[in-house]
Design goal:
The chain is an alpha+beta fold. It has two domains: 158 residues, NADH Oxidase (3-Layer(aba) Sandwich); 72 residues, no CATH class. The chain is built from ten helices and four strands. A four-stranded antiparallel sheet has the order 1-2-4-3. Helix 2 packs across helix 8 and helix 5 packs antiparallel against helix 6. It is globular, with a radius of gyration of 21 Å.
């Protein structure tokens, strides 16, 4: 399929054929492709939990309120946000950028570019992603509003704003995964109806993690898995050319 065909094929499928299996390695490869999705500052504050164990699948179905998409899924992927890993990921990006600049930048510009990256990933990123009962966020927001009086400035800097940033980035990875799965002829259904505490308990996730999305996977059970025709608001209602 070409891209347009893939996008038209992809539907939120809520019932999977019990007689049709999917290839776990292909699902894993689709998750590898998901890592190519863009993320804010290339921080990649995500983890993907690929569930194939039957007992864990049953537990996840319960955690997903026994929805048919989860109950009939052959496999389930949970997309998890890990804002708590921001220092570790920032260090990894910085270490990579030092070598990247050395390999690909003109010699006379390397030192400045490395210093810029060190400032950004060593100081700015830890400041932006730090959380402390909302207090750091209040300070960042006040700072942004103050600076914004004199020049354009990002002002959405509260802790809830930064939480939104990491969830948006993880959502891009989830969408990339679903498109890759559609290209394999596999179906998915992004779920937001789940007991996040129970999901974290099942997966033994740390306190600082958050569930972004639960995506059951399988092959559609004929027309049973798709509830009628696809509805979309007319393009004219959402498109604005300026």
């Amino acid at each position: 399929m070409n891209l347009e065909e893939v996008l038209n094929f992809r539907r939120s499928v809520r019932d999977y054929d019990p007689q049709k299996e999917i290839d776990t390695n292909k699902v894993k490869h689709c998750l590898e492709l998901a890592t190519l999705a863009p993320s804010s500052s290339n921080m990649q504050l995500w983890e993907f939990y690929h569930i194939t164990d039957p007992e864990t699948l049953n537990e996840m179905a319960t955690a997903c309120l026994s929805q048919s998409a989860a109950a009939t899924a052959k496999e389930i992927v949970v997309f998890v946000v890990r804002q708590d890993l921001h220092r570790k990921r920032a260090k990894a990006v910085l270490d990579f950028e030092r070598g990247n600049i050395a390999r690909n930048s003109p010699a006379e510009r390397q030192q400045k570019r490395i210093k810029d990256r060190e400032l950004y990933y060593g100081t700015v990123i830890p400041f932006l992603y730090a959380r402390f009962f909302g207090l750091f966020g209040l300070f960042r927001k006040a700072l942004g509003v103050t600076i914004g009086l004199f020049r354009p400035m990002v002002k959405d800097l509260s802790e809830s704003d930064m939480r939104t940033v990491v969830h948006k980035s993880c959502g891009l990875a989830a969408q990339t995964f679903m498109i890759a799965m559609a290209n394999e002829g596999y179906d998915t259904c992004p779920l937001e109806g789940f007991d996040s505490r129970l999901v974290k308990k099942i997966l033994h996730l740390p306190h600082g993690s958050e569930i972004n999305m639960v995506i059951p996977c399988g092959i559609r059970h004929g027309n049973k898995g798709i509830w009628g025709e696809r509805f979309r608001v007319s393009f004219e209602q959402v498109y604005r050319q300026i």
